[in-house]
Specification:
It catalyses: ATP + H2O = ADP + phosphate + H(+). Keywords: ATP-binding, Helicase, Hydrolase, mRNA processing, mRNA splicing, Nucleotide-binding. It comes from Pseudopithomyces chartarum. It is an enzyme of class 3 (hydrolase). The chain is α/β, with parallel strands linked by helices and 836 residues long. Helix content is 47%, strand content 14%. It has 31 helices and 23 strands. Strands 14-15-21-22-19-18-17-20-23 form a 9-stranded mixed β-sheet. Strands 4-3-5-2-6-7-1-8 form an 8-stranded mixed β-sheet, sandwiched between helices. A hairpin with a 2-residue loop joins β3 and β4 (276-278). α22 (602-609) crosses α23, α24 (629-640) crosses α26 and α24 (629-640) crosses α28. It is globular, with a radius of gyration of 32 Å. It starts with a helix and ends in a 16-residue tail after the last helix. It binds one DNA strand of 9 nucleotides through residues 245-247, 273-274, 289-292, 294-295, 316, 318-320, 408-411, 440-442, 466-468, 470-472, 487-490, 501, 503, 546, 554, 558, 610-612, 643-644, 648, 706, 709, 763, 765-767, 771-772, 784, 786-788, 790.
Amino acid sequence: MPPKREATDDLSSLRQKSRYDYLAKREEVKLAELRQQVQEEAEEERTNPTLSKRELEQFARNRTTLQLAEDRARIDQTSSSGFFIPDSQFDDKAELLHKKHIPGPNLPHTSEFQQWEDDQISRSLAKNRHARTGTTREAEDDYEFVFDTTTAPQWTSDSDGQILDPEKQRLQTQLDEAELKIKTIDETRRALPIFKYKEELIAAIRDHQILIISAETASGKSTQIPQYLKEAGYTAQGCIACTQPRRVAAMSVAKRVSEECHVRLGRDVGYTVRFDDRSGPDTVIKYLTDGMLLREMTHDVTLSRYSVIILDEAHERSLSTDILAALLKDLVTVRSDLRLIISSATLDAKKFSSYFRDAPVFSVPGRRFNVQKYFTAQPEANYLTSSISTAYQIHLSQDKGDILLFLTGEEEIEAAATSIEETARKIGNRAQELQVRKLYGALPADEQAKCFEPTPPGCRKLVIATNIAETSLTVDGIRYVIDCGYTKENQYNPRTGMEALCVVPASRASVNQRAGRAGRQSDGMAFFLFSKHSYWNELPENTVPEIMRVNMASVCLTLKSLGINDLLNFDLMDKPPPEALAQGLELCYTLGALNQEGQLTKVGRSMSVLPLEPMSARVLLAAEKFGVLDECITIIAMVSESASLFMRPKDKKVHADAAHKRFAAKEGDMLTYLNVWREFEDSEYSNLWCKENFIQYRTINRARDVRTQLESLCERIGLEPSSNPTDHIAIRKALLSGFLPNAARLQRDGQSYRTLKNGLTVYIHPSSGLMEARPRFVVYSELVLTSKEYMRNVFEIDGQWLSEIGPMLYKQSDIEKLGLEKKMPKGQGKVGIDGQ
DNA sequence: GAGCACTGC
């Protein structure tokens, strides 16, 4: 039997071979090529005086790259390599698994893993036997020699951290970056799955005015198709527009394409999103958010400057994409020169095709890795606890790779994170470290950023996220996805005007998308915390499109301003409930945006210019009359972002509440916002001030952007600037003019309110400053159904104002009658005027 | 006396 030292070396060299030999060889060849290239470039630079600046820069870059690569090669020769795994690591895991410290759902394992687990346990027992008989060394040797590198999962230990010194890591990163650049952009483009179909694709677009492209993610469609079209000459008479449902996507794709085309962003290739326009007269490939293209249509109904419109990610069915699709379907019959491309996921292509008059479907395969899906045998009673134990099962039994756990909201995520960290403390150093990271929209930006930090060697990262990680944000290095199978969905009831955020089963499309997050860089695994039966029988096939479950008022106004008069017969892919449309139209009429014939009025025209809900837009028009435009712009901007304005960390609730109380205005929350804004302005928009006062910096900054935009739009629609900071009566009257249908009156019990319009029983939200005062008449900006029916953003009004400002809605006599005579529903007694 | 999935103009 060989001595131990040699055994260790043997093992490590074996492992090194399997992992690094080919890498080293590849690098050697690459280095030689690079040396040659740099030499040739140097020669060229010396002899050719007509080189462009770009070429010279490229040469310089290549020289730096070579330098780095040679440094790296030197370090490699001097550093000792080793991927030895201390057996204690295995021992601990085996013990853990053997004793089954972690209870969990009956997770289906791969058979190899099962085999490995059994082996580990028996080996561990054997080793202990050896230890007891005093043959420790033999035991160790024995253990290392039976270790089979081909079947056992590759565990790494803390010692990896000591092997890689920071300097080497830094160089490695730089080298990786440089390597990416060596691979010329053209090469990358050619490697995309879509490249093979380039000619066919161009031909298809030439032959068909509408084309559905069904392509999987990572096929390169968003970046390549506009470039192919440009090469095919479609930019000669017009511009190519490519819509994205999200701002960041529009911006990053535009940046990428401008690099591929070797042009400066904002010239030939640009993007347009709200608050940020980087496009100009030369722009021929323009990425924009779907909402932005819709807004452009209100200025130019035929989109005359565009020759091609690409609706990207149409399968996500965002509100704007759906409306655009309907408008464009119409537009192509008028503009025969316009090409329309709808890009969607494979599953929905058929639906899009039949909607667009049986347009042909062009399929492009993607470049995704395989994700193995696992279901639970039985439905899980509590997805929160089973998701936690599943995470631990993966952590203790599976190969390297980070875990992504989908839960429904902030509360669950915080609870899960606390519980997992507690368990981690109990296990201590018997398992490798598990870093828990949280990810949800309301999380402050610096906390969010922690998810994207690379996982240190010897650690595993567990990201607990909401839907935000499904499409909006991508975490690298995920190999395992755990999905609770539920989502929070906003449901709007057009009859009552109430919103509710409900936990509902996620759709099959959604859970598949989530599972796909495990297969971005290598093969992955997805663990669904529901049974296969539920998957097919309880999960809806697709998420209900946004247009089916939102307030239609804003949509009505937009469509009317585009000259669509018959909304009920407007050819949308999925038609919203007629009730919702009727309610939307009615509101527009109440606000004076539509006349009795349902035509857009002058007021309505002005309102449609403002990127706001109709009620908020109406406030600004009224504010001019009351001479408080400046104040109302601030308030409306803050209200539109109010949901996550005040921060309330769990551990500092008392401090936060105290800080927020300072801003409270006795007339109501709307004036509280005004106070917050004024102090923020006085602090010169300071981040520190926000921290001290528990205000979300990100949110208030967005409100600042909205405010600036509204200011300039108000000027454009001809509103006279005015300000009167102390006249709180005028401010509230202006607000009432917009939120007119949202008035409520205190009921006899002195607790609840009754909405004047629908007679619903509602309550002031406990976060409101008017919670204790409970004035007789209040107005709110929205109704939310949580544990109770709550009014949010409440302010006090005088009952007299209702008939003064909204005589068509409220008659003074009615209001008085309501107080004295009208009976409550269900015979609960009379509504009295309290305090009298 | 209590919660806020995610976008977008």
